[in-house]
Amino acid sequence: MKFNPFVTSDRSKNRKRHFNAPSHIRRKIMSSPLSKELRQKYNVRSMPIRKDDEVQVVRGHYKGQQIGKVVQVYRKKYVIYIERVQREKANGTTVHVGIHPSKVVITRLKVDKDRKKILERKAKSRQVGKEKGKYKEEAIEKMQE
């Protein structure tokens, strides 16, 4: 069901906006989920991917246990290139295979001061959400007193 009358749900308009998105919006679209350990540690579900993050492919032909470093984030094509995810061309040269960031899990973040700030901000907003919700029985009893 549509809730906001000012946001379109037209498929062709959404596709147009996706494929004509500017670089700063593509960064956000190219987010990857964090591994269970990182999710526990930072209390954040996903982050925009960047070069030097370590990732594990979880879907598609290249899925498996090996963990590789992100070599390049190619925003124009909506793909990332990972260290050991390569294939051989007909002439024998090896090339990196582009993988969509939603099909990988980040296992190690490259944390600098800006990224640390983003992690703290995202974790803080999740804490606010946890406080909302149903009233506990003790809280109701205190209100009645």
Describe this structure in words.
This protein has helices spanning 11-19, 23-29, 36-42, 113-131, 137-144; strands at 31-33, 46-48, 54-57, 67-74, 79-82, 86-88, 94-96, 104-108. The protein is extended, with a radius of gyration of 20 Å. It has a domain at 31-131: Roll (SH3 type barrels), CATH 2.30.30. The strands form three sheets. Strands 5-4-3-8 form a four-stranded antiparallel beta sheet, with no helix packed on it. Strands 1-2 form a two-stranded antiparallel sheet. Strands 6-7 form a two-stranded antiparallel ribbon. With 145 residues, the protein is α+β, with helices and mostly antiparallel strands. 34% of the residues lie in helices and 23% in strands. It has five helices and eight strands, in the order ααβαβββββββαα.
SSE arrangement:
Layout: H1 11-19, H2 23-29, E1 31-33, H3 36-42, E2 46-48, E3 54-57, E4 67-74, E5 79-82, E6 86-88, E7 94-96, E8 104-108, H4 113-131, H5 137-144
Antiparallel strand pairs: 1-2, 3-4, 3-8, 4-5, 6-7
Order of helices and strands: HHEHEEEEEEEHH
Question: Total helix count?
Answer: 5
CATH topology of the domain at 31-131: SH3 type barrels
- Subunit arrangement of the protein: single chain
Portion of residues in beta strands equals 15-25%
